[in-house]
UniProtKB/TrEMBL annotation:
One of its GO terms (cellular component) is nuclear pore outer ring. It comes from the Eukaryota. It comes from Mucor circinelloides f. circinelloides (strain 1006PhL). GO terms for molecular function: structural constituent of nuclear pore. InterPro entries: Nup133-like, WD40/YVTN_repeat-like_dom_sf. This is Uncharacterized protein. One of its GO terms (biological process) is poly(A)+ mRNA export from nucleus. Belongs to the nucleoporin Nup133 family. It is found in: Nucleus. Keywords: Nucleus, Transport. PANTHER family: NUCLEAR PORE COMPLEX PROTEIN NUP133.
Amino acid sequence: MSGSFTEPWFDPYILCKSNAYQITVNCKLPDEYQKIINRELVSYLRVKATLQADYMVLLTTTHFYLYLRKSHRHIAHPIAQLYKTNGVDPLFDVFLQDDDYQHDPQQIVKILTVDERGRAILLVHRGDRFTQTCNNIPLYHPYEHITAVKWINADQALIGSSASQIYLLNSTSTDITPCVLTLYKQTISGPLGFVKSLYTTPIPHASEFILPKSEESGPIVNMCTVNETIYVCSHHQVSLWTINCQSEAQLITRIHLQNDIINCISQHVPADIKKSMLQCRIVNMDVKIKEELVLLVSYTVPGLSQYVQYAVIKFNMIHNNGKVMIFAQHTASLPYSEIPSPSSKIPQLNITKDIAFASFDGTVVARSLNKKSVFEESLVLKDKYNAILSVHVVDSSEEFNTAMVVTAKSGVLEFQVNKSEIQGPGNIYAGIVDDIVERNTMVFKSRLEQALFFGVYNESPLQFPLTVEHHEDVGSAVMDLTNEIRTGTCSFLPKTLEISPIESRFYFQNHMYKMLKDQMLDQYLSKEQRSQLFELLELYYISKQLWKITLEKSADVQWIDTVTQLSQAMLQTDQAGAKSQQWADFLTNHMDKIKDFLAQISTNNTSSCADDIIPRVIQKCRSFEETNLPRYGIQKEPKNSFSAKACEHLVSIFDQKIAHYTISSSDDQKAKLQDMAALILDIHKQEPCFEEYNTMKKKVFDGLCAVGLHRAVVDLADKHNDITFVVSSVPYLGLSSTEFKEKSRYYVDRFGYPYFESLLQQLDTENREDIWYFCEQYAAFTEVFFSDEEHMPKVAWIYHTKRGSYEKAYKALSSCSDQMSEKEHSLAYPWIKMLAVAVKGKA
């Protein structure tokens, strides 16, 4: 299935894979049943399926659906309406029997479903025949309800209740109505019990053993049969029974486990929590061999009592002369907690000899039952509308333990654990290690790797939550995986992709930090580690941009030759092979040299490769830094960023281009020079030192003016609010008189008086038509302008004379008389005399 995929995470059927375990898509559900599940999921739906896919049973409130793999038959039968009391789904169990009667092998499927109040429906399907029988379990107590159902053989089923009672239902092919007995003998207790006994028919009992008090035992949670021994589990105890074909029951032993469970759990909670503070109970049970019993237990601790936590405990049992001794062999906490709600399903437990598979709402946890290993991994569904419908284990091999997980929307998933790998010496799940923190860190790194590569596709039904529970060194794990991605030694890093290896490394490195941040694990990284991750990601990004330029320049032999020679000079090697391959190898495997490579680029003409590389890299890195410096929580002064430092080199290239600029330079080169100037100013604008910014503006504008690029000067000076260069460059734009006036008015309206002042000072005092035009347009600005005695006295005296300010006119005219030409003086002399008389007369 997966042979055509170069990497396992390319394969849509492989959802997760490491040396220790894998989760795959085993098969889809039959279309008919998938439609039923899609329709019934929000209401009542029960599913049972064997791991070998011999059958699949779906039970709704109205129908019974059966799929038989051997005969490829799809069967649907309407059934009597099932009750659903207090939001609790009816319980049911399935028994599959191969019947060789009259050499006509047939599969007999028996389904027993019982609702909370004891209403039972027995469904039997044999060949083409289908029977349905209803019965009522006569519950003894008014508060009693059904809590567990289990077939123990083809004709007998056990039904457990909340009152610790166990009901035995006998059903044979000749019975019209199944017979119901109790395993425990009922006793009359109190006046209420006596009165009830007068009006009810006693239920036959299969043994003479007295029902224990419910507070001592608790509700029945599950029942199992191994080698004709029946294990019955309640909240606080386990009892062992034998039942013969005549429905005679014998109690082998009843073991109260509350103290044992508390002792086991106390080893997995903080030392300051006393045993008396723990609230523990058995949630479920599974037995595979007579000598071993595995329990799924829940517990709460003070301060977090609303959260229920879980653990699995493996007990060994010794049978000796009719007596049973039991002792805890192994306890393992589970990485799952929840706040219970009425809609929460009862957690299920399925075991192999070495692995416990505990299933919850949307999660299956696989946990080692052997002290040789601390293996603990989870299958977690991503879609909240998806659901785990059924979990069963397959027959274990020497090497693998496997659970089949039937889901509502993702078919049947196969959760396979490599027993040899998790128990072998030197593996990351080893139970005994020299450094526990190092071991836990390696496990976290493995989970991070799975989440990074297998969580890449949105179509995956799984999610990969990452948690820190065992003092893992998150920073060390992240940096180790980062180094493996950088060096190409990560086993999951794609070797061949439609995108380049450079781009794939950038993607996964970037996605890794996103995962950490989304799950709030970035807080475990030191400032130095975050800085290293950012700088490496920026190198990937620069390399990626250089590769994009390379693809654009693939036909430019001179460009390829230039960058290859520069890169090989950096490495001080002369590699064999095509130059394009040498350049690609440099970008892929020598990223630490890329910044040095960029620093070596210079230009002495207008066609150098610097035109393509330096400005583009800087511009891309600026936006990259603006986005990612805050994301990585790095406080860095703008001048210390890569784009700012590279800008210093860009200024040097700019100076060289200005020095080599000629009138015959192409429009493309002019545009590149302008873009370079714009980039330099944009970067320096972010500098906190305003003086450095102003110095750079003057340097750039002077350079552009020197080569006659006044249009660029005006546009950039406008953008950077440099009025002086706007005023000085507008006259060089080749505008008509009308266009000049319109352009100047636009800037006066935009910048206000400062521009008006610079404009008037720039205008020719010999040709005063434009001066008077702007004075008339902006009277208020004009008054302010000429109130300064140093502003254009040759024009100011005329302005003051027109306004009748003779004293100001006389003073202005007197101050500039020595600067006038002979013609100007002869014209102004009469005015000097008249203004002098006017001033004296006024005095």
